[in-house]
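Input record (Table S2, row 231):
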Amino acid sequence: MSNKKIVIIEDEPDILEVLSYNLKREGFEVLSATNGTEGLALVSKEIPDLILLDLMLPGMDGIEICSTIKNAPPTKNTLIIMVTAKGEESDIVLGLGVGADDYITKPFSPKELVARVKAVLRRGVLLDTSEQKEKVEVGALTIDTNKFEVTVSGKNIRLTATEFRLLHYLASHPGRVFSREQLLSRAMGDDVVVVDRNIDVHIRGIRKKMDIEPSMIETIRGVGYRLRDID
Ligand code: CA
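Output record (calcium ion complex):
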């Protein structure tokens, strides 16, 4: 994990210092900026592996910065964790919509922060290949796209085609939060006709059928859903 480069964009000096200190201690190379303009310049110069991006910044806000970074070819693969405050759920949904990879809500412990950064970096490595995987295993859950088969603790469960796609998508990105809109467009794709566009209904259906492990799919209030990251 060491030698990875992290850029922090945060306007509050105290928070910046805590973030920076804890990440440096883990062996990361840490650079920082206190506003969006400075942050974007730093990011395009350094091309970091990951960015910790505060949402509430003076001038250009976090959503705009995130969108700019994810739309610029040199930095579009840079991972972004949004740093948000409680009550900013609608901004989290916006941020995920413009490509943020994860978010962390203030206040958080240094331990939590470091764990999240490492998890996102680890996932980032898998990201390119995970979507084509024929077999996905997360904890007790196994999904085989060749056989169109899902098992939980070895027990077969029968899903509808929509449920299958949804669960496969979530399980291909364990630990990552998706908004309902993202699940509709990404998990289903444009070529699929979804009879019921209400994601909650499908999730409820999956949970009911996964009667041994229904809590594997977590509801993130005001944001969306994620499949629990087992490790
Ligand atoms: Ca701020």
